[in-house]
Write a structure and sequence with these properties.
Blueprint (H helix, E strand, L loop, with lengths): L11 H9 L2 E4 L3 H15 L6 H4 L2 H10 L4 H8 L3 H15 L8 H8 L6 E4 L3 H9 L3 H11 L4 H17 L2 H15 L3 H26 L6 E3 L12 H7 L8
Parallel strand pairs: 1-2, 1-3
Helix pairs in contact: 2-8, 6-9, 6-10, 9-12, 12-13
Amino acid sequence: ADDYPASQPFRKPILGALDASPTLALEISPDDLLVSADEVSKYGACRVPCLSRYLSDALWKKLQARMHGNPAMLADIGRSRPWLASMLVETVDTLKAGFQTEFGTETQLQNVYLRPRGRVIGLETLNEQIAAFTRLTQAQQREMLAQDLVQTPAENVADVKELHRLWRIGDADALKAWDDAKTEKLARSKQLATQIDNRVVVDRNYRFAARMVAMAAPNKPVFVAIGALHLGGRRGVLALLKKRGFVVDPA
């Protein structure tokens, strides 16, 4: 909540850019967001416990140990495919770090974007976003979950807080470099970890950049808000926009 004080939830340059933009583009549209939970369940959950069948005995036992004392959460995760199980484990650690979904940036931006004729759109469809995970191979999905279980919950919470600290500084390249170093440390398979990053982050970076350019026009500003890990690095959205001739000026 401290990131968005009621008196001024965003800095003046951001509020000015929002006011000047007839379009607010998020990763997915608000309409897609309303049905996202159902779609995630449709493609990521099983009707009966299934996760243990996808995992090695060692990885399943490690997950059971992590959820010791929280049988209800283990039951929920146990009905998930590995990619969704990974996201649920990360969500648990994020909540333990004190973060709440209502204070996500996209929600806060929509709260202050009140243009009568303004429109809020998505840079990708919900199906495109979910496909980034459902098209991962079983080996890649297991690698995702295994990385979440390498460290203790306390270590994961500390990482969430460090990610937040870097996000507040606003250095996209430093944030991406830190995340890459973390993956390097936690990866069981460097090859699989690279494949996951390409599918979940890099491929979508190219899609975001292409669609941002397609909707851009002189005297027709667009305010775009996407996850910070998509911005930095040599294949991040900012670098891709620079290659297309845009001037990138951190505000």
